[in-house]
Design goal:
This protein is of the alpha+beta class. It has a domain of 126 residues. The strands form two sheets. A five-stranded antiparallel beta sheet has the order 2-3-4-5-6, with no helix packed on it. The chain is globular.
């Protein structure tokens, strides 16, 4: 339990530094280095001991500022609750509470924002795109999971969507993890060549 607490504290601190930075490209480099350190050495790393022994770093697209947008949060959506069976971790429920529109170099679309139900709650934003199964994890990636500290910054009206910080769910690294994945409404038909790539 204390190892998990320490891991979450370190992730929270990493995202605090990202939000405080006025240089997103430099912040992404810091993000990469800090995540590599957590994956390589922390007891709560999603990697097995064998994977840690040969770990040489996670792979990312080069930083591209065109994939960073500040989106308006539209809360006039029909709420719908999704349930994810996470195996030994039980059932996770989250409810659609808003929607954001994104215009990127490769396409325009919209994504639902979900609120994680339960004590404390949190914003959850999983997404898929046309790079999945090609250069990124087949089941999609995450931008926000604030219950675990992944928080790029938001207000009541706007949210930072910097896809250069998109990251893989734990199940991308080995099958012992069960992860909530992007629902069909958050699967974009165009590629987003930004953020974390396939784990080797």
């Amino acid at each position: 339990m204390l190892n998990l607490l320490d891991y979450r504290r370190r992730v929270n601190e990493m995202y605090r530094l990202i939000r405080d930075s006025d240089d997103p490209a430099a912040a992404r480099e810091m993000f990469r280095l800090m995540r590599d350190d957590l994956f390589r050495s922390h007891p709560q790393s999603p990697l097995t001991d064998d994977q840690k022994a040969s770990f040489s770093g996670l792979h990312y697209y080069d930083y591209d500022p065109a994939y960073r947008v500040i989106a308006t949060v539209d809360t006039t959506v029909e709420p719908e609750t999704l349930e994810y069976d996470l195996g030994e971790d039980g059932v996770m429920c989250c409810t659609r509470f808003a929607r954001v529109n994104v215009t990127l170099p490769t396409g325009t679309g919209s994504l639902s924002l979900f609120w994680i139900n339960g004590y404390g709650g949190g914003v959850f934003l999983p997404f898929g795109d046309a790079t999945n199964r090609q250069t990124t994890y087949g089941a999609g990636r995450y931008l926000y999971d604030t219950i675990k500290g992944a928080d790029l910054g938001a207000s009541q009206r706007e949210i930072v969507l910097d896809f250069n910080f998109a990251y893989n769910p734990s199940c991308a690294y080995n099958p012992r993890w069960v992860c909530p994945l992007a629902p069909p409404e958050n699967r974009l038909p165009f590629p987003i060549p930004a953020g974390e790539r396939l784990f080797p």
